[in-house]
Amino acid sequence: MKIFTIILSIIAIILIGFNSTKIDLNNPFSGESALALITILASLCAIILLQILRISKRIEAQVKKKK
Length: 67
Known about the structure:
Keywords: Membrane, Transmembrane, Transmembrane helix. This protein is mainly alpha-helical. The protein has one domain (2-66). The protein is 81% helix and 0% strand. The chain is built from two helices and no strands. α1 (2-20) runs antiparallel to α2. It is elongated. The protein starts with a helix and ends with a helix.
């Protein structure tokens, strides 16, 4: 599970990097720039969710260890 979350986080970071080059700073909310902003936001959400999953699995392992 740890490798899976790391791989998905790396893919999300690559998507953020790629889409940040697609943003037109003069008009960021039209056309391809808007799509790039939406994809960057979705990638950030995916990274946050993966970190929550990783932390919850770590807490679950510690709770099982105490029993």
